[in-house]
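Field log, afternoon session.

UNIT: design team B
ACTIVITY: writing a sequence onto a fixed backbone
BACKBONE:
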């Protein structure tokens, strides 16, 4: 039997079971969420928590749209202002020691193997909504359908028309990927699921300083 070694198959993202899943998101993909998906949500004056913030490549662009951004991660990647926290641990606002606790949105690129738990935890905490960027293949699977989508379908599935290259351990400006991504959004009080496409927008939303400011802190 021949082995399939096409570049598409070779570049698929797979990680050991206990991995932190250290795959930073290109900042333009977060701007695409704010500009093309959360339209009408009026993010100004709102607070957002990025609970798997890594080196800040998602929490930084969120700060361009939200009035306050909290950033945490289970691992310390050296990001200024971030706190260390396992998002899946039981918590109280006092434990997190955040003055004026209350978060409108929880937005992240969660570790793939924990994405369902991140979504459930986020939905229990966010006042307005949860948005998670996931591989599009996350939408399939009988187990996930039974546990998540049949009971709590997202309000929006926003499929990228462009690829969002993510590579392990660093932000890449140039990488390619065979993996397709979408944003899933759960908005409080919104019934039904809307499927939308994120139009090509990388060129408009990407900035050279996104990569110049890259923090090369080893995990
Ligand atoms: C796919 S990376 C995403 C990084 C960042 N959100 C971004 O988009 O650039 C997943 C991140 O989840 C973090 N992580 C893994 N398990 C976690 C947990 N239980 N609680 C909080 N963060 C966790 C990892 O350390 C890693 O930084």
């Amino acid at each position: 039997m021949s082995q399939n070694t096409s570049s598409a198959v070779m570049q698929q993202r797979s990680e050991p079971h206990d991995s932190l899943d250290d795959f930073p998101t290109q900042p333009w993909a977060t701007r695409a969420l704010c500009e093309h998906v959360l339209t009408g949500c009026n993010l100004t004056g709102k607070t957002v928590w990025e609970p798997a913030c890594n080196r800040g490549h998602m929490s930084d662009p969120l700060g361009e749209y939200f009035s306050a951004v909290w950033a945490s991660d289970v691992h310390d990647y050296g990001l200024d202002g971030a706190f260390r926290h396992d998002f899946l641990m039981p918590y109280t606002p006092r434990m997190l020691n955040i003055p004026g606790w209350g978060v409108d949105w929880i937005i992240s690129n969660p570790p793939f193997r924990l994405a369902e738990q991140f979504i459930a935890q986020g939905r229990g905490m966010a006042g307005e909504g949860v948005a998670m960027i996931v591989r599009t293949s996350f939408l399939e699977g009988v187990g996930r359908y039974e546990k998540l989508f049949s009971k709590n379908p997202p309000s929006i599935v926003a499929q990228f028309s462009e690829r969002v290259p993510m590579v392990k351990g660093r932000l890449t400006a140039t990488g390619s990927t065979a993996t397709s991504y979408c944003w899933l959004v759960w908005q409080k009080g919104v019934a039904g699921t809307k499927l939308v496409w994120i139009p090509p927008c990388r060129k408009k939303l990407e900035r050279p300083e996104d990569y110049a400011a890259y923090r090369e802190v080893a995990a």
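LOG NOTE: The mean pLDDT is 87.
NEXT ACTIVITY: expression trials, pending approval
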